[in-house]
Amino acid sequence: MERQLQKLTWLKVQQLVPAEIDTVVLPVGTVEGHGSSCLGTDNFIPETIAEGIVDRINGLVAPIIPYGVTRSLYRYNGGVGITSETFETYVREVVVSFTDTGFRNVVILNGHGGNNSALKSTAHDLHRDRRVNVCVIHWWELCGEITREFFGQIGGHGGIDETAMVQAVDNDLVDTDAYDPEMAYYVRPGVDVYPVPGTILLYKEGEGYPDFNPERAREFHRKVIAEVGSFVEMVLARWRKCGL
Questions:
Q1: 3-class SS at 193?
Q2: With pLDDT > 70 as the criterion, what percentage of the chain qualifies?
Q3: Contact 110/138 with Cβ under 8 angstroms?
Q4: Phi/psi of residue 104, each to 5°?
Q5: Any idea what DSSP says for residue 204?
């Protein structure tokens, strides 16, 4: 069946929600530099994960919120950012609309670290004020151990994990000819730099550089989708068992 919310008529949604489907998946991201990967890396990844899990959890996928809280990479060409306050308000009003439609469960698939705290605050308020079940997933954190096991190292912004996920979506979204290892910056604790001096951000010295292997990228993509799908399936089952 069609799982893209925006491709359905309002009559079909009226029929499906909540009688047959009570869960909606909302991808969120931003537009900013990612080394030699595309500006939309943080959007394409949560979209592909949402599409990969939605049949398994019997949900619908909402259109992505493509602009987020971009700070340290804002001034690199093409970067787009909005304030935390604007972002929180926007996400909240979108989710309120979902609850008015009849969705009981909202899974927010986040592709951008700058959104983390705003999404946590918004999810808490929605849970308290609207009595909606909200699960916010920062995929790279949830799947951090998978990255370590699969690649033998941790990931990074524009690094081995994000680059692999984008390559699995479309290899043309990564410009390997433009890659330069000096794009990478090792993020040290105790320092705040605006803008950061690099568009690939590594969180362990010497680890996380992209490897641009399409076959490994596709396998990693499958593992990430399986892990996120399993987690969401578990959360939904427990909410329902508890009568929420």
A1: coil
A2: 100
A3: yes
A4: -100, -25
A5: B
Longest CA span, the chain: 54
Q: How confident is the model at residue 19 (pLDDT cuts 50, 70, 90)?
A: very high
Alpha carbon distance 189, 115 (integer Å) = 20
* Whole-Å CA distances, 238 to 24, 53, 81, 126, 235: 17, 17, 36, 19, 5
Residue-wise pLDDT tens digits, 64-107: 999 999 999 999 999 999 999 999 999 999 999 999 999 999 99
Considering the domain delimited by 5-154, tell me its CATH architecture.
Answer: 3-Layer(aba) Sandwich (3.40)
Alpha helices (H) along 58-170: 84-101, 116-129, 139-142, 144-151, 160-169
pTM above 0.90, yes or no: yes
Which pLDDT score is estimated for 171? Answer: 97
Query: Residue 241's pLDDT band (boundaries 50, 70, 90)?
Result: very high
* Structure-block tokens of residue 178: 């433009």
β-bridge mates for residue 201, sequence order: 157, 185
Length of the chain: 244
Calpha distance 98→23 (Å, rounded): 9
Contact 220, 152 (CB under 8 A): no
pLDDT in tens, 138-169: 999 999 999 999 999 999 999 999 999 999 99
DSSP per-residue letters across 20-82: T--EEEEEE--B--BTTB-TTHHHHHHHHHHHHHHHHHT-EEPPPB------TTTTSTT-B--
